[in-house]
Amino acid sequence: MIARYFAPLAAGHPGAFALTDDAASFTAPPGHDLVLTCDAVAEGVHYLPGDAPA
Fold it and tell me: What CA–CA distance (Å, rounded) separates 25 from 17?
């Protein structure tokens, strides 16, 4: 369904990765980083509570 109906809408937008991944690429304002995901990220599992932001 995604390939048939939605992927064509993303054509010409390289940051959409042809809707083949659960990620997207956006340009952040100068001096900022932007990370988007729809995956679960849990403190104590994927990073330690005291870890500084990257």
Answer: 8
Q: Which backbone phi and psi does 43 adopt, to 5 degrees?
A: -60, 135
Q: Which domain holds residue 32?
A: 1-54
5 vs 51: which has the higher pLDDT: 51
- Phi, psi for residue 3 in degrees, rounded to 5: -60, -40
Q: What are phi and psi of 25, to 5 degrees?
A: -115, 125
Closest CA to 35 of 46, 45, 50, 49: 46
The pTM of this model reads 0.34
Q: Where are the alpha helices (DSSP H) in the chain?
A: 7-10
How many domains does the chain contain in total? 1
Q: What's the chain's average pLDDT?
A: 80
pLDDT for 48 equals: 93
